[in-house]
Amino acid sequence: MTPTESTDVVVIGSGFGGSIPAYRLAAGGARVVILERGPWLTGADFDHDLKFGSASTRVFEFTMGDGMNVLGGNCVGGGSVVYFAAMPRAPRFTFERQGLLGRPLWPRSVTRDVLDPWYDMVAESLPITRSEWEDVTYSGGLFAAACAHAGRTANPVPTAVDPARCTNCNWMMSGCRFDAKRSLLLNYIPAAVSHGARVRPLHEVQHIAPTGDGGYRVHYNTVDEVDYRVVTGTGTIDARIVIVAAGAAATPVILQRSQEALGGIPEAVGRHFSGNGERLNTAVIDEAKARDVLGLDRGDGVAYEGYQVGKGPVCASWDRLDPDLPEFSRHSLEQLYFPPGFGTILAQVRDATGPSWFGVEKKEMLRRWRSWLTIFIMSEDGNEGVFGPPPETGNADRIAQQMLSRGALRYRPSEQTRAGWARADADIRDILERDGLARVMPWTDEVIGAYTVHPLASCRIGDDPATSALDDRHELRGHPGIFVTDGSAVPAGLTVNPAFTIAALAERAVPGIVQAALDRGVPVRYVDAPPRSAPEPRPTTPAVA
């Protein structure tokens, strides 16, 4: 039998919610171990192809649920490796939302004013920069021109991208081989390692149990680096503090599986899941109209044909983020590049005489793919997702060596959520179909249901124990010393990309975690210095660092 290890802090997951407290605690003198179920890839590992075994299949996890599907990160760095690096702050009205409950969803202690200093800390640490119009790509410029033509406003999106390093290759969703995208691989993680934190890739946590002396024992499996279904070993680590940051589709599952050992968990664990109100529309642009109506010219006789050129979201319209509008009618619209695969399969033909998502008409639509423009909706949903009983191992039942699994999430969008999607769809058509500029159609949800790349709220902070699994310090109710700091702690959809808010909330949670560690006998202090920004080479032995 392998002996149980001992440390001060175990962090489960290495995305924004995990790496930020890992760095702060390690810099403050605590012994920190980070357990990550995915591989540790950096720089040159991020291939520019979709072949099996490439970064595109290794670092993603596509979890199919009942009515909701989640695309997230599965690697050291978590969602920061696969995100588009769009980093807007959440609108002020977000923190006043009441949702379907009809009462405040956020704790009274968390407001935009309270969170702004923590946003500032993250912005300095990554760093995050304001984009200018000269940084905007063809697709972003096209969307901005269409918004102006429709009498709307558009804005460059603030990003965590180094423009001097960016080559506009548009592969940033599968990691960045040029280290232009400021993922956690370039800041918080190497800084944590430099202070002694140990990163354990290919370690999948199964459950947490009390040790009897006020601490916790974390049980994990190690998995094969090629076939994640293959368990190569097991182990346990004892710690005084456990930070669960495995993502909104995995954190509640780990806690559900820990229920018996922990002697019960809050009823709100695994409930109130939000897909951030997300939805996608594909517009097929008429190139002649782009030239004649919008006056666009790339300088080579082509108006647009630039769908694949550039980077992810660089331009957004925030006209509907109006605090005076009623709840469930507010949304943002963001130009987006979604790589081949899901995007080409789920894009539908407008006014098709046959099937809208396959067939002759779809083939013609695909022929014109360089003239596509994808618009991403982030709206106010009703937190309708619920997780069922957890699988025997992992957060979902894997049905392929990499990337694909089936989870226990059930999602039935409410009337309010659907009405919000319909209003946003109409908004996109009003902008892009004027004067025959484009034909627009939402992605189908008939094949796989709704989908999100920004899962939230499955283990959320709040004031009401009946609807929030965590208190306003991110501590699991009834279990002192267990904290949740990832997207599952965010109480509701934000109407904008949530990475910045997740990171700011994680920063805000750290002082409380430090105090809890001190109370439990861990010699640690709070450190507010920004992390060192430098890439950290992958260890020669990936399983143990």
TrEMBL record:
This enzyme's EC code(s): 1.1.3.6, 5.3.3.1
Cofactor(s) in the UniProt record: FAD
Signal peptide residue numbers: none
Pfam families: FAD_binding_2 (PF00890), GMC_oxred_C (PF05199), GMC_oxred_N (PF00732)
Gene3D superfamilies, sorted: FAD/NAD(P)-binding domain
Domain Glucose-methanol-choline oxidoreductase C-terminal: 411-506
FAD-dependent oxidoreductase 2 FAD-binding domain: residues covered: 8-40
One Gene Ontology term from the biological process aspect of the record: cholesterol metabolic process
InterPro entries registered for this protein in UniProt: Cholesterol_Oxidase, FAD-dep_OxRdtase_2_FAD-bd, FAD/NAD-bd_sf, GMC_OxRdtase_N, GMC_OxRtase_C
Residues annotated as domain Glucose-methanol-choline oxidoreductase N-terminal: 69-271
Keywords, sorted A to Z: Cholesterol metabolism, FAD, Flavoprotein, Isomerase, Lipid metabolism, Oxidoreductase, Steroid metabolism, Sterol metabolism
Protein name: Cholesterol oxidase
GO molecular function (one): cholesterol oxidase activity
Family under the similarity heading: Belongs to the GMC oxidoreductase family.
Pathway assigned in UniProt: Steroid metabolism; cholesterol degradation
